[in-house]
Design goal:
The chain is mainly α and 92 residues long. It is built from five helices and no strands.
């Protein structure tokens, strides 16, 4: 009985350490999305910040929430740069 308990404990430990938590999964997804969009420098920083702060995938943002977040992230951008940023941000 003790051996069975020990084996179960070791198995649980191995499975638990192999599982990447939700934060690691979110980071991987955000990195992938940033790479897909070929973002660099400040645009990448801004994207990663908004992506990591965003609600989990299981609770999708409403269009209004998305617009608020994109507007917040676009602070300081003007003209064509802002237009391009808002377009890519709202398409996510």
């Amino acid at each position: 009985m003790l051996k069975l308990s020990l084996v179960a404990s070791l198995l649980a430990l191995c499975v638990g350490s192999a599982y990447a938590g939700p934060q690691q999964e979110k980071m991987a997804t955000c990195n992938k999305d940033a790479a897909t969009q070929s973002l660099k420098g400040d645009a990448r920083k801004s994207f990663m910040s908004s992506c990591l702060k965003a609600a989990p995938a299981s609770a999708p943002m409403t269009q209004q929430d998305k617009m608020k977040q994109c507007n917040k992230d676009a602070t300081g951008k003007k003209g064509d740069e802002r237009k391009a940023f808002m377009s890519s941000c709202l398409k996510k």
